[in-house]
Amino acid sequence: MLSEVLLVSAPGKVILHGEHAVVHGKVALAVSLNLRTFLRLQPHSNGKVDLSLPNIGIKRAWDVARLQSLDASFLEQGDVTTPTSEQVEKLKEVAGLPDDCAVTERLAVLAFLYLYLSICRKQRALPSLDIVVWSELPPGAGLGSSAAYSVCLAAALLTVCEEIPNPLKDGDCVNRWTKEDLELINKWAFQGERMIHGNPSGVDNAVSTWGGALRYHQGKISSLKRSPALQILLTNTKVPRNTRALVAGVRNRLLKFPEIVAPLLTSIDAISLECERVLGEMGEAPAPEQYVVLEELIDMNQHHLNALGVGHASLDQLCQVTRARGLHSKLTGAGGGGCGITLLKPGLEQPEVEATKQALTSCGFDCLETSIGAPGVSIHSATSLDSRVQQALDGL
Ligand code: PMV
Asked: Any idea where the GHMP kinase C-terminal domain is (predicted)?
C-alpha cells in the first residue's frame, strides 16, 4: 500500500456530434471537456475511511474494522463485473444511509463503497483513507460528472493499492498512466457508472479516462488518433430536460415520418464522420478553413436536431446571440434545454469573447470559456494544482 497523498483529476465530456442519432445506430463523437473533477486521497491511521464531497455537502465516515469484518463475498463475481441488485442492497446496509437520503448522495456513496471494497479487498487489510472529491462540473447537466467521479475514484484506489503504479515521478507536475493501466481504470470506472446509472453506454467514463475525442458506434468505442484541443464556450441554459422523454420523442417522430426523419439521422451520421475526418487532419496547427468546416457542421447539425424536435427556445436564443457575433453554436447532449457549445476560432480577441459571455449571461444562462479535447485522467503533484482547487479540496 502506498503511503503518499495522491491528487487525481479527470475531465467531463460533451457530445460534439451524433446525439440522438447514436440511439439509432449512427456514429457519435464525444470529446473531453476541460472542466475537471479533482480527488485527493490521503492514507491515514485513524482506522476510518472518510469520504467528503463538498459540491453536494456530503461528509461520511466508516470504521475500517467494521468494513473489514463484513462478509464481502457478495462482491466476489470474477474480476470486474456488473453490480447485481443483491450487491446494491448489501451495500446500502453497509453504507448505513438514512431512508430520506437524497438520490445523488445515495448513488455517490454506493459507487464509492462498491469501488473501495472491490478494489481494496485484495489488500491484507482494508486501508484507512481520507478522500475528498471536488468538481468544476455541474451535476446532472449531461456533462459526465458522475463518470469523472468514478474515474477519479478508480484511478486513486487502484494506485494506492498498487494494482497499478503511480506514474508521477520526482519533479513531475502532472503525468498519466500507461494504456494498460488506463484500461483497468476505465473498467472499474464503468462499474462505478453502472452503480450510478444502471445501464450506461460507457462513453462518459471512456472519454474521462482517455481524454481527447472518441467515436461511439453501435456499442463500440474507439479513440481518435489525433484530435486538437479546441476553445469553446459552454453555455448552460439551465432549462431542465428529460433525456428519456426527448429520446422517446425522436423515436415517435421517426415512426411517424420515416421517410423524413431517417434521412436526417443519416445526414447527422455523415456530419459526425466529416467532423472526425477534419479533426484528424487538424493536427498541431489547424488552418482557418478547417474551422470554417467545423462551424458549418455545427450549424447543419443544430438545424437537424431542431427538425428532430429536440431544440428549445433557450437554445435558439444561444444560437442567435452567438451568430450575431459571427460564432456558431449547437446543443450538446439530449437538448430540450440543457447545454450548448460555441466554437471559438483562434485569433478571436478576448474582449469579443468576454462580450459574448456577457450577452449570454444576461439571457440568464451560465457561460464558461473552456476547451475540448483535454487530457484524460491525470495525476498531479501538490504544488501544480492551482490555489482555487487546493482550497476547494481543503474545504475552504
Ligand atoms: O445529455 P447526455 O450527455 O446524457 O446525452 C444524451 C445523448 C442521447 O443521444 C440523447 C441519448 C443517448 O443515450 O445517447
From this structure: 296-349
Question: For residue 50, what are the β-bridge partners?
Answer: 61, 130
Distance between CA 58 and CA 108 in Å, rounded? 9
Phi-psi region of 215 (alpha: psi -120 to 50; beta: other; left: phi over 0): beta
The answer to whether 137 and 12 have CB atoms below 8 angstroms apart is: yes
Q: Do 315 and 382 share a domain, yes or no?
A: no
Domain count, the chain: 2
1 inside domain: no
Q: How far is the CA of 298 from the centre of ligand 1 (A)?
A: 17
Q: Name residues of the chain where pLDDT drops below 50.
A: none
State the Cα–Cα distance between residues 311 and 334, nearest whole angstrom: 9
How does pLDDT run across 269-296, given as a tens digit for each residue? 999 999 999 999 997 678 999 999 999 9
> CA dihedral defined by 334, 361, 393, 231, rounded to 10 degrees?
70
Pocket of ligand 1 (CB under 6 A): 15, 19-20, 22-23, 142, 243, 247, 333-334
* Closest atom of ligand 1 to CA, residue 20: 9
373 CB neighbour count, 10 Å cutoff? 23
Q: Which pLDDT score is estimated for 53?
A: 95
* Residues 356 and 193: beta-carbon distance below 8 Å: no
Residues 260 and 204 in one domain: no
Confidence (pTM): 0.93
- Taking the chain, what is the end-to-end CA distance rounded to the nearest angstrom? 29
What are the Cα distances from residue 220, in Å, to 16, 28, 145, 215? 17, 11, 22, 8
Q: Which of 383, 316, 378, 328 is nearest to 152 (CA)?
A: 378
Q: Which three cell numbers stand for residue 381?
A: 503533484
Domain limits at 47? 6-225+376-394
Quote the ligand 1 centre to 36 CA distance (angstroms).
20
Ligand 1 atom 1: residue of nearest CA: 333
Residue 157: how many CA atoms within 13 Å on its side-chain side? Answer: 33
User: Is residue 74 located within the same domain as residue 157?
Assistant: yes
| Same-domain pairing of 216 and 257 | no
